[in-house]
Amino acid sequence: LESIIASPEVVHYVCKRFGIHMSKKLGQNFLIRRSVVDEIVAAAELTAGEPVLEIGPGIGTLTQGLAQSGAAVTAVELDRRLLEVLDTTLAQYNNVRIIHGDVLKVNIPEIMNHKPFKVVANLPYYITTPIIMSLLEMKLPIERLVVMVQREVAERMVAQPGTKAYGALSVAVQYYTEPSIVMDVPPRAFMPAPEVTSAVICCRLREKPPVEVADEKLFFRVVKAAFAQRRKTFSNTMKTTGLDKETIASVLAKANIDGARRGETFSLQELADVANAWYALLQ
Ligand code: SAM
């Protein structure tokens, strides 16, 4: 018999039995609602034997749902205390492998056997953005990323130019993937309940970026500059790249862009136009 881990009673029981006090520092808010686990697993569209990386399995609430889908689950957990818990709660699944470590430090290609995979996780909120950014920047063969994040972070990921939520995270996520919000999740779906509403976001990796970029390094330097100083004109904030005023003026003229606009109004295409004009100038 498979008893469902994602329920208030079982999470409470397991934590009590193993003497686990959830660590706020490690972002430990465990899911206690099975319907949320089911929706996350459904959004991942897993097939039997497919490799999936879970970040932060906790006591195994989401891991169980992933295991039941038949996928080949590799889960990386930082908190050593949880290893023996996971050994017990997931004992009956032979398609789960737990790795002890910090997801920002482990060699992901190696643990995923250098093959394409999906990432599914209820992320620890204190490092949500670094995790997402590093997964994207490493250019790993991640076919799909289905993650629970703070609602506000999910909004930043899907934000359009000119809105308050639009920033470097929006550009990076939309450059590499097609993101969409799957569902909102209220604080009471977790134990302990976090202070904010969460959301599940599904990011499908693009086959190629939506805009043509001659040099990605330059593109992301322009992106960084565009959002470095909110409410400054783009010409001004571009100075943070180290370019002088005259060069910035000629880059913007070449890109046919009005430098008096604010950086946060720039679309991916316009950011790419600036980066490509800069690139052309260097040739
Ligand atoms: N997946 C479980 C669930 O949904 O109930 C737990 C999710 S909890 C929000 C985040 C988990 O990530 C915790 O178990 C925490 O210990 C773990 N964690 C925190 N920092 C980590 C890191 N740098 N690398 C790997 N796991 C981490």
Describe the global form. elongated
> Distance between the terminal alpha carbons, to the nearest Å?
66 Å
Strand order of the largest sheet: 4-3-2-5-6-9-7
Mean of residue pLDDT values: 96
| Largest β-sheet summary | 7 strands, mixed
List the total number of helices.
Answer: 12
Beta strand count: 9
Radius of gyration: 21 Å
Would you identify the regions where 5 or more consecutive residues have pLDDT less than 50?
none
Structural class: alpha/beta
User: Topology as H/E string?
Assistant: HEHEHEHEHEHEHHEEEHHHH
Bound molecules: S-adenosylmethionine
Q: Estimate percent helicity.
A: 25-40%
Strand content: 15-25%
Keywords: Cytoplasm, Methyltransferase, RNA-binding, rRNA processing, S-adenosyl-L-methionine, Transferase
Domain Ribosomal RNA adenine methylase transferase N-terminal: 36-207
GO molecular function: 16S rRNA (adenine(1518)-N(6)/adenine(1519)-N(6))-dimethyltransferase activity
Family: Belongs to the class I-like SAM-binding methyltransferase superfamily. rRNA adenine N(6)-methyltransferase family. RsmA subfamily.
